[in-house]
Amino acid sequence: MKKIEIKIPGNEYPVYIGANAFDSLDKIIRSKKLFRNLFIIIDKNVLALHRQDITRFTSNFSGKVFVHEFNACEQEKNFVSLQNIFNDMIIKEFSRDTIVIAVGGGITGDLAGFSAATFMRGVLFVQVATTLLAAVDSSVGGKTGINFNETKNVIGSIHQPNFVLIDTEFLKTLTEEEIICGIGEILKYAFLTDQKFFISLKNNFAKLLKLDATFTSKVIETCISFKGDVVKNDEKENGLRKILNFGHTFAHAIEVEQNHNIKHGQAVALGLMCALDLSKRIGLLDEKLFTEFIKLPLLLKDKILIKKFDAERIYEIMKRDKKNQDHQIKFVLLSDIGDLVVDVEVGKDEVIQSILQGMNHFIYS
Ligand SMILES: NC(=O)c1ccc[n+]([C@@H]2O[C@H](COP(=O)([O-])OP(=O)(O)OC[C@H]3O[C@@H](n4cnc5c(N)ncnc54)[C@H](O)[C@@H]3O)[C@@H](O)[C@H]2O)c1
């Protein structure tokens, strides 16, 4: 089992990655002396697919355990689901000596993390990431939250986990659609890290699609290590951490405009196309590099298809993005791989053109 340390000052924690890593969950909890009561918030689908592993763990655990099932979808990442969690916590008499364990993807992790951050002013939290997207991104960094009134992740807090566990065996039950979602977020890291990772992803794309064990583990380690370094330097997103939002201003608005009929990771791939186009359009990214760069998200061209979209509405939704200041949309754009510029303001016409240009590649008729 591989271990990566996330070294946030005052908040260091390990990420364990490996085949059958879940079998070590009990041992890790004991070795870290986290002798608490466990409140497990689990994605219903994950429970159905991996019931044997989960039951083995819960029935062998020596302390109090309660399993709260959650229907993981974007529409349910909301106050009602949070209230259901708090209801169970209170009815089952959980108190401050609780560890909330999220078992699922980014939706479960965000919701469970926010409940851990707010229940009795904050209890311990563990993430067991079961999707590729959660493994490469959302399980690390401490962002937790829920959606509210058509705005994504607008209520939330930063609450770091005590540790993260990624069992690569769990990833084997993911559908191709969910693998694509994870790849959407991985492609973001191709633009944030370095040329070597970009080329490696391009050359080994088929391996990633098939979740080749060796290559996928390497990719997870690269993304998590990179994110860990960024968050270590700017946990509260005052500066550097903003680069992790590359493509996301577009993506969040696309998700809402499409009524969540497109998933987060898929929207990120589209958002990257729009952000690359906008970077070129305002003269930050040269034409030659642009042509080279878009080849990577375009590898998903036939895997993410949308019927139609309304660029004006996407723009209007972006105006509600939580990263905006003084009603101005703040973009993360790039001039080269690893060379990001944050807080860029751009005129409406150029933004609309980038949405049209970036998303038209994915329209089917
Ligand atoms: N906190 C952060 O830093 C951060 C970063 C990126 C994204 N996010 C959030 O993450 C969410 C998206 O996460 P996601 O793509 O993991 O979505 P998700 O949690 O909904 O999981 C996607 C689907 O996969 C299923 N699933 C989960 N694990 C499975 C498994 N092992 N086998 C088979 N099916 C499985 C789920 O039931 C669900 O239907 C969004 O809400 C986004 O806002 C958060």
What does this molecule look like?
The chain has 365 residues and is of the alpha/beta class. It folds into two domains: 2-173, 3-Layer(aba) Sandwich (Rossmann fold), CATH 3.40.50.1970; 176-222 and 231-360, Dehydroquinate synthase-like, alpha domain, CATH 1.20.1090.10. It is 45% helix and 20% strand. It is built from 15 helices and eleven strands. The strands form three sheets. A seven-stranded mixed β-sheet has the order 1-2-9-6-5-3-4. A two-stranded antiparallel sheet has the order 7-8. Strands 10-11 form a two-stranded antiparallel ribbon. Helix 11 packs across helix 12 (264-281), helix 11 (248-257) packs across helix 14 (311-318) and helix 14 (311-318) crosses helix 15. Nicotinamide-adenine-dinucleotide (NAD) is lined by residues 43, 45-46, 49, 72, 74, 77, 104-108, 110, 130-131, 133-134, 137-138, 141, 143, 152-153, 170-171, 173-174, 178, 181, 264-265.
Strand-helix topology:
Blueprint: E1 2-8, E2 11-18, H1 25-31, E3 37-43, H2 44-49, H3 51-60, E4 65-70, H4 79-91, E5 98-104, H5 106-118, E6 124-129, H6 132-138, E7 143-148, E8 151-158, E9 163-167, H7 176-192, H8 195-203, H9 205-209, H10 213-233, H11 248-257, H12 264-281, H13 287-293, H14 311-318, E10 331-336, E11 339-344, H15 348-360
Parallel strand pairs: 2-9, 3-4, 3-5, 5-6, 6-9
Antiparallel strand pairs: 1-2, 7-8, 10-11
The structure holds nicotinamide-adenine-dinucleotide.
Nicotinamide-adenine-dinucleotide binds at residues 43, 45-46, 49, 72, 74, 77, 104-108, 110, 130-131, 133-134, 137-138, 141, 143, 152-153, 170-171, 173-174, 178, 181, 264-265.
